[in-house]
Amino acid sequence: MSILGAQAILNAIETGDISITPFQADHVGPASVDLTLSSTFRVYRKVHQIHHVREDTDYRDITEKVEVEEGSHMLIMPGETVLGITQERLRLGPGLCGWLEGRSRFARLGLMVHISAPFMGPGIDSQQVLEMSNFGPAPLAVYPGTPICQFVFQQLNGTERYQGRFAGQTADSF
Asked: How far is residue 40's CA from residue 81's CA, in Å, rounded to a whole number?
């Protein structure tokens, strides 16, 4: 299993094995593609009851959807977590999987863009949800349209496809 380099990524896009909508060629790096932050977020409500972590637990029960106006930002306070979603819809054909990772320029500010579950299975066809937490000492303003994270593509030994709970997730269903 190998990581796809820039030319292999572009070739896979050309053959349709990878689809990124909308696609920006200048977001292709040497071994990843930068994905941008959308204007849709989910913020956690202040709750005072226990929320049980089980297989059927739904994050939407303790969050509310927020749309950030054009030119504005989402403020993430130290110690706070918000959910974001990428503008791009990413589809991987059989034989490809990947990893959603933060970018070091933002990690150095204390922003963790994807705190858990970075693996994306083969056959995904969705916008990517970001678990964004501020581990730094200062409030952080994040702006829609910012290339906030990167996706690293990996060749899979097999042709399996992801069929899980969040298959096909978009900002509308987020």
From this structure: 14
Phi, psi of 4 (to 5 degrees): -80, 130
CA angle 112, 137, 139 (to 5 degrees): 75
Query: Tell me, what amino acid is at 141?
Result: A
Alpha-carbon torsion angle 42, 48, 49, 54, nearest 10: 30
Q: Which of 87, 94, 160 is nearest to 126 (CA)?
A: 87
Side chain identity, residue 154: Q
Q: Which amino acid, 54? A: R
d(CA 107, CA 21): 26
Alpha carbons 44 and 80: distance in angstroms, whole number:
9
- pTM (predicted TM-score): 0.87
Chain segment 25-82, per-residue pLDDT in tens: 999 999 999 999 999 999 999 878 888 999 988 888 889 999 999 999 999 999 999 9
Active site residues: 131
Q: Which two tokens stand for residue 35?
A: 């994905």
